[in-house]
Amino acid sequence: MLDSSSSDLSVERTARERGLEDALRRAFGGVEPLRLEESLFEAILAGWGRQQTSRQLSASTKRSRDGLVRRFHAHAGVWPWEWRAEHIEEWIADLAAPPRRLAARRCVPTR
Fold this sequence. Notes:
This protein is about 65% helix and about 0% strand.
């Protein structure tokens, strides 16, 4: 026999899942995208872009910010909803590190 607290959690989880499904349906026009995470990331950036437009920010500012977020995403290797402080710390440390030089190749002339 289930106690009332476990059934309450089940009802709460089901309601949360329905809410998430409804939000995704609205975000993607009722179509389920093939690559959900990638589509959600693009939708987040598009929404952020619209918000920046409403603040009358220049196109170059918006492009710069979008590029920064995309570079950070590529560096971290995880989606924004998975970002942690250590991802930012690692990225900043990598940016602050001196550039790595390519090893010089010795050219030995052939006779």
